Amino acid sequence: MSQTDPFRQISRGIYTCLEQTTGASYDFKAGYYERLVSTHWFNRLFWDTSRNDYQEFAAKGILRTAGTVLDIGCGGLAQTSQLYRATGNDCILLDRSVEMLKIARARLSADNGRLPSNIQLLQGDAFQLPFPDHTFDTVCSFGTIHLFDNKRAFVDEALRVLKPGGRCYFYSMTSERKISRIFMSSLRLVHEFGEVYSAAQTLSLFHQRPLLVSSHLIGSTIFMEGLKTK
Ligand SMILES: C[S@@+](CC[C@H](N)C(=O)[O-])C[C@H]1O[C@@H](n2cnc3c(N)ncnc32)[C@H](O)[C@@H]1O
């Protein structure tokens, strides 16, 4: 796949489409964040989910599809590195934080020091994806929507690059449980999270679009998948 050809390499196997490559908020907490979300207790306590719940859902988008995959806000692949190592699909893993992409690179190349040739790591902005309309067969974004205030613009941009007939997979944290609500509201005060949404509010971001959507809730995480109809 040559999707990263127009972009410049800033570190081994990591490309960028941005002028400003440093200073992403996750650059400063990449290692800490990745360790936290890899623990059983964090997911159980705050979201009442397991890592298995995330991995099973992500497998639908990464493994059980065919064609090109874009993962927006891929982070360090805490839940998904095994899936990306196993897939034969051509995948672009995009994140604003180069430090998160370095963690992703380390996980992907753990076996033999090399990145799988079908996986490209790209630094970019979810709100200005550097791709034409209708580029990807599958668009995924895991654990991201709740971070943003402008959630609708985020979804608009993700769906813009999805082909008609393509599938999308998102999950997001919501305020469904009291502990989740308190945790999210606290992080919002320090600008870590966007406006706190319930599951219904999050799902409504996908209404009135050319999409057939299905969803389910586990704990306070909503899992949404869609088929783009035109
Ligand atoms: C909560 S983490 C989720 C990471 C991963 N998807 C997972 O499930 O573990 C959110 C990720 O989104 C990235 N991110 C935040 N704002 C972004 C933006 N505007 N464009 C691209 N990535 C962004 C962060 O750098 C971070 O890696």
TrEMBL record:
Keywords: Methyltransferase, Transferase
Domain called Methyltransferase type: residue spans: 70-170
Coiled coil: none
Record CDD domains: AdoMet_MTases (cd02440)
Gene3D superfamilies with a match to the protein in the record: Vaccinia Virus protein VP39
Biological process terms in GO annotation: methylation
Molecular function per GO: S-adenosylmethionine-dependent methyltransferase activity
SUPFAM superfamilies associated with the record: S-adenosyl-L-methionine-dependent methyltransferases
PANTHER family from the UniProt entry: 2-METHOXY-6-POLYPRENYL-1,4-BENZOQUINOL METHYLASE, MITOCHONDRIAL, METHYLTRANSFERASE
Protein name in UniProt: Class I SAM-dependent methyltransferase
Organism: Chitinophaga varians
Organism lineage: Bacteria, Pseudomonadati, Bacteroidota, Chitinophagia, Chitinophagales
